[in-house]
Amino acid sequence: MILAPIQDLLQSPLKLDDKIASLLMTARDNSLRLLKLVNDILEVIKLEEGKSNLALVYIEMNAFIAGTINSMVHMMESRNIRLVKELDDEPLIIQADTYAMERIFLNLLSNAIKFTPEGGSITVRSSSNIKEAIIEVIDTGIGINQQDLPLIFDRFHQADGSSTRKYQGTGLGLALVKDLTEKMGGNISVYSKPGIGTTMRVVFPLSREKHAEEEIQQMPTEGDLLEVIHRSAEHSAALPIDTPFEKGEADLPPGDGPLLLVVDDEPDMRQYLVSTLGDDYRIVQARNGKQGLELARKYLPELMILDFMLPEMDGLEVCKLLKENQGTRQIKIMLLTARTDEETKITALANGADDFLTKPFSKVEVQSRLHNLLQTFNLERNLTKQNQELDKALNELKQTQVRLIQSEKLNSLGTLTAGLMHEINNPLNFTLTALKVAQRDPSIQGDEELQDLFN
Ligand code: ADP
Questions:
Q1: Sheet containing 216-217: which strands, arranged edge to edge?
Q2: Predicted TM-score (pTM) above 0.85
Q3: Dist CA 319 CA 350 (whole Å)
Q4: pLDDT tens readout for residues 339-378
Q5: Which of 111, 116, 188 should be mutated for ligand 1, with most atoms under 8 A from CB?
Q6: DSSP 3-state of 244
Q7: Pairing state of beta strands 93-96 and 57-60?
Q8: N or C: which end of the chain has fewer CB within 10 A?
Q9: Ligand 1 pocket, residue 169 CB under 6 Å
Q10: Residue 352 DSSP code
Q11: pLDDT, tens digit, for every residue of 39-96?
């Protein structure tokens, strides 16, 4: 009831606005991912409780695999991954459940596509010995570390579970593949070398009976709408999250509105944020931590939405580096997290995050939180400006004070000199007057020598 209406809307003859169509496609792809997740979890539980009902029929594996691969070819092409089919000439007839078998190969192929960089190749090879059909999916991808090999078939195990993981997934796929394979009498093994590639090998017992043509199922059945939707959900695992960047996404948009840097590796999430916030902010996008850090330093945005788990460098590290630096400290950072546990929050705060947004979030929530952050940013900016002005005024005051003190010093020197002069002049005056009176005395006037002295 979610996917079918969305699909109807997308296929309707009405000409949809580009923005709306792209939002609908985001909703569709993510509903498919959700459906796959729910399906995987249900299947795991059913298998665990022994309630998985497999409907066994006879399948010719070469044709069946070719049919399954066909549905994935466009994904390989879009990632520039070469497909090599090396299928056995002999028919390989085994007894299996078609739905389970399709799931096994869709999972193996999705992983091969997901973990193989552009330009690599995937080989699907089938062969047989007297008793068994052997099918291998061989990729030239990133490979798996020796210590992870025994664990990858465990539920929820991911070789790279770090916060800088580049790939989506839950770690359920291979657990399910193993359970289903074994339930149909087969087994799975893995060979892998980091940097060289991975080979997944599944082996099923061959049927010993002779079969009439009509008894054998060659292809996965097309099925009804619901089956088609479920199949699309299986494909969704290989939908790349690191799609090539649209041109200009990392460029500075023109204008002078507040600038928001969105750092998220999921194009869907970036697209959603752009369509939700594009009217209020100029938006620049980055798709990994390193690029986010570079763009933040380059453009100095007011606001930043930073995903927690990012390839190359995780959100916490980016946050810490920006907050440690005088030049970028003022950027308001909102960390986007899928986790709400106390520890994550405390670590994020300790690394300087200004706010959190826990996925899933509503449009109103992200808008109002950003609005608040922007207001704080502006207030702080005004404060800083006022502080600078205050500093300047204080400096000027200090200089005036220095000048005042100097002139005061000169003034007091003047007063001192005047006082001294007064002190000197007074006795001098008295002395001169006394001498003048004495000079007029007749006894002195008669003596020439004394007169000379008085003069
Ligand atoms: P996920 O949902 O993470 O893909 P899976 O159970 O399918 O879960 O795989 C478990 C882990 O095994 C993956 O996270 C990955 O680390 C590793 N893995 C599986 N297939 C491959 C492959 N073809 N190349 C490299 N690593 C792989």
A1: 93-96, 57-60, 216-217
A2: no
A3: 10
A4: 667 787 888 888 899 998 888 788 888 999 999 999 999 9
A5: 111
A6: coil
A7: antiparallel
A8: N
A9: yes
A10: T
A11: 888 888 888 887 778 888 999 999 889 888 887 888 888 888 999 999 999 899 999 9
